[in-house]
Structure to design on (230 residues):
């Protein structure tokens, strides 16, 4: 049935002056951690990157300590597990692709690091997908282990609806509706895919100011050089 129009959502990071909302990114991380990370990795993000979200150094350390990562080999050539440090990347849920597929009926939950960039209109797509589980139309056959989603290409998706109301208890007291969690997650995944967006916007703004000043300078230089001739 062709391309489905995505839900129209607004984002704090839209437009030339757009910025991430740190409270929202923290909520998005909380939902990723408590829900999505059971199946999806986020391999581009190291714990220390979470300082961008407004977490202090001590908070980043504490978050990292809650994870185990594999390290080694030690002096006997053995691999070993230890608590994660801020410089470690967030470990994914599976040791390898086979394990990931085995746990999901043959489908592989993709890494979410670049998802907000990999799909057209990424944040709106992720938001629409997460809020897009509905009953299949009568003439649509949903195969065993699959789920109907308005926004997934082909509508048949292996991911079960991951969110339900009040699934997380937000640290900042925000009410955790499916729409709220989906919005927070989409913003968080946009940050994960483009952590330097604000610096890019800021540079663009400086370049614009520079070009305006340069235009003014050229105008007066032109008058000074050619004025006496006219
Ligand atoms: C696919 C997001 C939770 C299993 C996906 C996709 C996204 C996504 C964006 C890719 C869709 C595409 O390819 O266009 C999320 C988010 C979650 C979440 C944000 C947390 C709210 C889960 C959980 C599971 C899961 C908990 C496992 C129980 C899968 C699988 C696929 C998938 C198997 C592949 C679907 C297919 O190719 O048919 N997810 N997911 N996801 N997810 Fe999730």
């Amino acid at each position: 049935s062709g391309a489905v129009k995505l839900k129209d959502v607004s984002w704090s990071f839209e437009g030339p002056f757009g910025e991430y909302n740190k409270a929202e990114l923290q909520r998005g991380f909380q939902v990723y951690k408590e829900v999505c990370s059971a199946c999806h990795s986020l391999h581009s993000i190291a714990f220390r990157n979470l300082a961008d979200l407004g977490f202090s150094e001590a908070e980043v350390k504490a978050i990292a300590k809650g994870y185990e990562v594999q390290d080694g080999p030690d002096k006997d050539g053995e691999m070993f597990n230890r608590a994660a440090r801020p410089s470690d990347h967030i470990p994914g849920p599976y040791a390898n692709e086979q394990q990931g597929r085995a746990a999901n009926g043959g489908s592989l939950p993709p890494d979410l690091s670049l998802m907000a960039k990999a799909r057209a209109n990424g944040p709106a797509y992720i938001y629409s997908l997460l809020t897009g589980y509905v009953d299949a139309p009568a003439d649509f056959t949903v195969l065993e282990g699959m789920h109907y989603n308005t926004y997934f290409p082909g509508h048949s998706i292996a991911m079960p609806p991951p969110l339900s109301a009040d699934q997380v208890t937000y640290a900042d007291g925000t009410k955790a509706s499916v729409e709220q969690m989906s919005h927070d997650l989409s913003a968080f995944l946009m940050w994960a895919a483009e952590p330097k967006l604000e610096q890019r916007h800021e540079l663009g703004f400086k370049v614009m100011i520079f070009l305006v000043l340069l235009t003014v300078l050229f105008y007066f230089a032109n008058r000074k050089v050619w004025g006496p001739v006219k």
